[in-house]
Amino acid sequence: MYLTHLDCPRCGREHPADRLQNLCGCGSPLLARYDLPAVAKAVTPERFPLRPADLWRYRELLPVGDPRHVTTLGEGWTPLLRAPAYGTEIGITDLLVKDEGLIPTGSFKARGAAVGVSRARELGVERIAMPTNGNAGSAWATYAARAGIGATIVMPLEAPGICRRECVAAGADLRLVDGLISDAGRRVAELIAESKGTIFDAGTLREPYRLEGKKTMGYEIVEQLGWQIPDVIIYPTGGGVGLIGIHKAMHELRELGWIGDKLPRLVAVQSTGCAPIVRAFAAGADRAEPWEDAHTVAFGITVPAPLADELILAALRESSGTAVAVDDADLLADLREFAGREGLLLCPEGAACLTAARHLRAGGWIRAGERVVVLNTGAGLKYPDTVDVSGVPVLS
């Protein structure tokens, strides 16, 4: 294993990677670091196509040492699909969609769960607990079951019903709260405090290894493009783990010498009903203030106070990116338009990225001829209410 240590991006303190860790003492999430020169000597990009088509093909850049602890359902290596009809319509002729809806449990959350659960298993965790907006909970419950680890999942009542059912099917201890993910987080904190160390906090970025699974989206995009970067990557941002992970992946690839110095411009997409990152980015702030009365049909990005606000904002600015808020009505219209033209039903969070792409191209931020990758983070079939069928005629 090439994992060397964990470090704190806020205060710079290093932490050992051979024991369980949550946040740094200063309150910041921790980031996993690797001996990249040794990785560069051990493997080259030409080797990856000879390996299985899952995220574990990048095992030298992942934090699990003993393969016996790898907990997998074949996650990763999702398709990067061209969208020429819709792209031409909005003026982005080189538009691609990374479709995470085909991954186990139907969302990109399986990446973080696979690596996070595998590392937790390797470090001796017997039960995890976490708040969730839905998909992360169902993914972690599923992978915990496969690893033989207990899981306590707390989610809002308004979360997609299929996620609730997935948790129950996986045997998780599911608890519901009448509120937002922030309310679920407070309940999880209480449970962990009461457990006296018997439950490990696996909440978003409260442990360092979920991000390592999510960063593999960045590796895959680059490999699928022939080890070239796109000009723009557009990502639906709630907790922001995937955006931070993709940014981390690009830095690692650059340090390995597998890509050039240029980085893709990252776009954080939020809803006008919950846009703390967009507001902070526009104000030039380093931290985001909590969003009051958060609500959006794109439930996965309803995160009024993301823990990793500093890291999200830093990634946007370092990559010369931006942050955009879109309206629910617009994203639902784009969801239908895209499905009709390209034959792919996106999740509402993925559709929000299309709306952002359309607006950014119309405003000139995305330039003619640029290659743009949109992340569809989940299967549209998990959100049946996004498509209104009330007007469909019934034949007699």
Q: What are the secondary-structure elements, in order, as H or E? A: EEEHEHEHEHEHEHEHHEHEHHEHHE
In terms of quaternary structure, the protein is single chain
Q: Specify the overall morphology.
A: globular
Structural class: alpha/beta
GO molecular function: L-serine ammonia-lyase activity; pyridoxal phosphate binding; threonine deaminase activity
Domain Tryptophan synthase beta chain-like PALP: 72-378
Cofactor: pyridoxal 5'-phosphate
Protein name: Threonine synthase
What does this structure look like?
There is one protein chain. The chain has 396 residues and is α/β, with parallel strands linked by helices. It is built from 13 helices and 13 strands. Helix 9 (241-256) links the parallel strand 10 and strand 11 (265-271). Helix 4 packs parallel to helix 5 (161-169), helix 8 (216-224) packs across helix 9 and helix 12 (328-342) crosses helix 13. The protein is globular, with a radius of gyration of 20 Å. InterPro entries: Ser/Thr_Dehydratase (IPR050147), Ser/Thr_deHydtase_PyrdxlP-BS (IPR000634), TrpB-like_PALP (IPR001926), TrpB-like_PALP_sf (IPR036052).
